[in-house]
User: Fold Phosphoribosylglycinamide formyltransferase from Chelatococcus asaccharovorans.
Amino acid sequence: MTSTSDTGAGKAPARPKTAIFISGRGSNMVALVEAARTPGFPADIALVLSNRADAAGLVYASEAGIATAVVDHKLFAGNREAFERAIDAVLVEHGVELVCLAGFLRVLTPWFVNRWAGRLINIHPSLLPAFRGLDTHARALAANVRLHGCTVHFVTPELDDGPVLAQAAVPIVEGDTPETLAARVLVQEHVIYPAALARVASGQAKLVDGRVVIAGDTTPADAVLVVPT
Assistant:
């Protein structure tokens, strides 16, 4: 996906304005922001939005010169769609074209997901379709699997079920705890999320008829990147 407003003879395509949703410290947000600062990265991080005013990641974003916004879900009396319409209004105000969920601890309704279909991506700490939902590291250990990891996917109305953009795998080793495993997975999250965003922002990866269609290959050398065909 590229914005065409600045395309023309001698001009590079405008980088699509991207919002990152967080609920806490936002370590994946930091990875995305740092990646977007590198020359040639195809997305512009224009907004960091949280449902919690005390989210630590908002401080980082503000100090980095990025616009921030808070839409407190508690103010909408359990009306999830009203909460999301308020979020959508903020996105429109900031001219946002892509949304990255980075530890945003709210389940989105079909209304919002469908409105942003093909422009909304998420990172999940497991090798989907295994271990959807919460407590993925403890569940992986309990299941005695040999590989665990993380997945970046397009968001669909079904929780943690969207088409896969990228996956990184890490081995489970003797003595692993949920905390040690989570730490190793997080390292790979910080690798594949910027890579996946770059693919979507540049138009290399698109959601077409419920499938990810990718042109070219930009596999990071330090992660196992699995791309659907």
The mean pLDDT is 91.
